[in-house]
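With this grant's support, we have paired protein sequences with backbone structure tokens. One protein thus recorded is set out beneath this paragraph:

_____
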Amino acid sequence: MGSSRCCAASRDSNQELPSQCIVKGEQSSPYEGMIKLPGGTFLMGTNSNEGFPDDGEGPVREVKVEPFWIDETTVTNRDFAEFIRATGYKTEAEQFGWSFVFYLFLPEEILTKNPPSPDETPWWKGIEGATWNHPEGPQSDISNRMDHPVVHVSWNDAVAYCKWAGKRLPTEAEWEYAARGGLEQKKFPWGNELTPEGEHRCNIWQGTFPETNTKGDGFAGTAPVKTFPPNNFDLYEVSGNVWEWCQDWFSSNYPLIRISDNPKGPARGNAKVIRGGSYLCHKSYCNRYRVAARTANTPDSSTGNMGFRCVKDV
């Protein structure tokens, strides 16, 4: 999946976790906090060479999606806490007993114990007790981060939430159509300049990865939702902040399959698509905050920079 995996540390486990019964939630309005998009035909992907060859960003192809509703923001800690209260659901990070945390967020006493890291991405640390409500481990909490995106949720966790909410994950085509906001073949959701007139439009790494983050955009980790201006479809933070799970299985060859109407990805695979980039992305190493960029992770993996938003059929 490319020469850089900085943003997608994967859980290497064959452990089978118990299934959980989730009761569908009831909401005062099933469309609260959602935007209705008209659908239509758009140009998906890119022919540029800015990405990683194995990511399969191109070629550009004409794709049609039907109308759908989409969350204006990623699911927040407040949203996810409501789901947990209603269902008693246990995330996969809780069941496995650990999740991946970026090393600069950990206190020295934990780092001196040398927690395990993936070989390719030593900045990720497998931390016991890291969960959606304890993002850096048991010593942390989310009391002052309720309006931040929920993290440490696997693809399976995201699907469980969507089912409870009467929604689903977006297909990759729906996600890119929404993220582009009606702009044709632009690099970012707002245009081709990363910081137009010097204004930061997304939460990504500022400085030298992975040693120094100057927080030029105001944040080292997640930012509250609705921090940066929305795109033309009124969707917030579709670039940077946290990666967003999509419905599709990942394949670097998938764009070559000529399916132009409502594509739903390959029939099978080993990893699920994630889109949008995160606060760890930087042009020197992982410039996947571009709207056409894509990568993937295994469905049971969880990290401190992966979240999701939901969609609903019209």
Notes: The first helix runs from residue 77 to 87. The first strand starts at residue 34 and ends at 37. The chain is about 15% helix and 15% strand.
